[in-house]
Specification:
The protein is an alpha/beta fold. It is built from 13 helices and 10 strands. Helix 1 (about 5-10) packs across helix 3, helix 5 packs across helix 13 and helix 8 (about 155-170) packs parallel to helix 9. This is LacI family transcriptional regulator.
């Protein structure tokens, strides 16, 4: 008698019910699941995952495509993995470090059915090329994509950026610098457009000489402020690409004995624990909810259910740096 048959005999449940427990189906009540799992443990039963994949038509694995791990992406990943685990999925992280060929391995794995779907956090290949792989399984992106390419759950960060800018203007700050991330990203473009259009509407000068790009972490933020503070005319406020950059700018400004926010107002982005700890005004970015929306998008196609995605918005969180 096979171990599978022994589980059926000892539990008193049918082959279909035991299979549902092995396959992590949500359609089993708690008491039944716990009883079968306990028997599986007693018998040291380990299901053949290849056989399970064939029987249910999926691997219960989702690939995550990312260029490199940084603080903000780690937060998003943790929430996405939490959602995936809740529905019985494991995740495989494909880190490319900017290598286009390495990144393509994830998409080839989708084509060969080694994963059921893909989440793009950041990518280096042309999204138009990557979108062709959508015929092999669902793909969702946290990186903003142009219309007609890969579906994206990303929010337009220009909207959040505008909240920060309007807050600074209402406080009387008009000499405003901008610290951006990737120079070519859609979010950087929309942030820059939000700044330029708002300043023009207010009849204020657009200071492109106070733009800094490719600024991601605390040390980058420190260096960015050293660069700006060495200029003949120095900004009195600064909008940052994220909270870690804002923390770096705050550190360097304090080394220079500047009064915050009287001599320099600082606004971060994302509303991380770091910004709360340091008292940095920031824009709340609902990262957790975006991660769950990303999983729901995949699950609605992989699992055949219809889970409604949350409608999200940015919010200003005012603290001591403004």
């Amino acid at each position: 008698m096979s171990k599978f048959e022994q589980i059926m005999l000892l539990s008193g449940y049918s082959r279909a019910t035991v299979s549902r427990v092995i396959n992590n189906s949500p359609n089993v009540n708690k008491e039944t699941r716990e009883k079968i799992l306990q028997i599986m443990k007693q018998l040291d039963y380990a299901p053949n995952r290849n056989a399970v994949a064939l029987s249910i038509g999926r691997t219960n694995q989702i690939g995550i495509v990312i260029v490199s791990l940084i603080e903000i992406t780690i937060s998003f990943l943790n929430h996405f993995i939490e959602a995936a685990l809740r529905y019985g999925f494991q995740t495989i992280i494909y880190t490319s470090q900017g290598d286009k060929a390495k990144e393509m391995q994830a998409f080839e794995d989708l084509r060969s059915k080694r994963v059921d779907g893909l989440l793009i956090v950041t990518c280096v290949n042309d999204p138009g090329k990557l979108s062709a792989y959508g015929r092999y399984g669902p793909i969702i992106s946290w990186q903003r994509m142009r219309k007609g390419q890969i579906p994206s759950i990303s929010m337009d960060q220009g909207e959040g950026y505008r909240l920060g800018l309007e807050h600074l203007l209402a406080k009387g700050f008009t000499r405003i610098a901008n610290i951006f991330g990737r120079s070519g990203s859609l979010n950087t473009r929309s942030r820059r457009l939000a700044y330029e259009s708002t300043m023009k509407q207010q009849g204020l000068p657009v200071r492109a000489d106070w733009y800094r790009y490719e600024v991601y972490g605390m040390l980058d933020g420190e260096e960015a402020w050293r660069s700006l503070s060495a200029m003949q005319e120095v900004p009195e406020a600064i909008l940052c690409s994220n909270d870690y950059v804002a923390a770096g700018i705050l550190n360097e400004a304090r080394r220079q004995n500047l009064d915050i926010p009287e001599q320099l107002a600082i606004i971060g982005f994302d509303d991380t624990e770091l910004s709360a700890s340091l008292g940095i005004t920031t824009i709340h970015n609902p990262i957790k909810e975006q991660a769950w929306n990303a999983f729901y998008h995949l699950w609605n196609q992989i699992g055949g259910e219809s889970l409604e995605q949350s409608k999200l918005s940015f919010q200003l969180v005012e603290r001591q740096t403004t």
